[in-house]
Amino acid sequence: MKRYAMLPLLVLAGCQSDASVRSKPPLQSFSSGKTPDAAVTCLIPSLQENYKAIGAQRFVAQTLAPGKEYDVVPTDGFVNGHYIYTVNVKASGSGSTLSLYKGQAMLPSITRSVEAGIRACL
């Protein structure tokens, strides 16, 4: 029975990582006049409000470079070694660029709800 205990770890080891999802071009990118900090402050509640799925979803910011770059990700959206959605917020000129990465096949209606959450913060 013990030899089967490692099976879930082996299955996860072969899965796509969040870094590999972000190494590909984003699904969409948006320009915002907001600083990265202001964009993230807007995005978290906006994504939570607009997210349309069976259950509610919470989002959090992961700091990559304070004041310059963040990833906004769902707290319950880590599937097969990566987040179902990642919104990368990066300083760009006097504003920021918000890039949507999709790491898991999701219904188009859910993707549109995430896009609506982003658009509300431009």
TrEMBL record:
Protein name in the entry: Lipoprotein
